[in-house]
């Protein structure tokens, strides 16, 4: 790891916040995909069952 000097705290916290936001984005995307899949299954079942 490079020597960050007096900026170490700012740089490491920026990395931490970025990773947290990335994890949140992945989580929201997964939840959205599950919700869309459930809605699609429900719509297909309604169409099939009439």
TrEMBL record:
Membrane topology (UniProt): Single-pass membrane protein
Gene Ontology BP annotations: cytochrome complex assembly; heme transport
Subcellular location: Cell inner membrane
Regions crossing the membrane: 12-31
Keyword Membrane: yes
Alphabetized UniProt keyword annotations: Cell inner membrane, Cell membrane, Cytochrome c-type biogenesis, Membrane, Transmembrane, Transmembrane helix, Transport
Coiled-coil regions listed: none
Major localization listed first in the record, in broad terms: membrane
GO annotations of cellular component type: plasma membrane
UniProt key word Flavoprotein: no
InterPro entries registered for this protein in UniProt: Haem_export_protD_CcmD (IPR007078)
Pfam families, per database record: CcmD
Entry similarity comment: Belongs to the CcmD/CycX/HelD family.
Biological function: Required for the export of heme to the periplasm for the biogenesis of c-type cytochromes.
Name under which the protein is recorded: Heme exporter protein D
């Amino acid at each position: 790891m490079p020597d960050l000097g007096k900026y170490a705290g700012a740089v490491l916290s920026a990395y931490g916040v970025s990773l947290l936001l990335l994890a949140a984005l992945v989580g929201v995307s997964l939840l959205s995909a599950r919700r869309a899949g459930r809605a699609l299954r429900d719509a297909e079942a309604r169409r099939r069952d009439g």
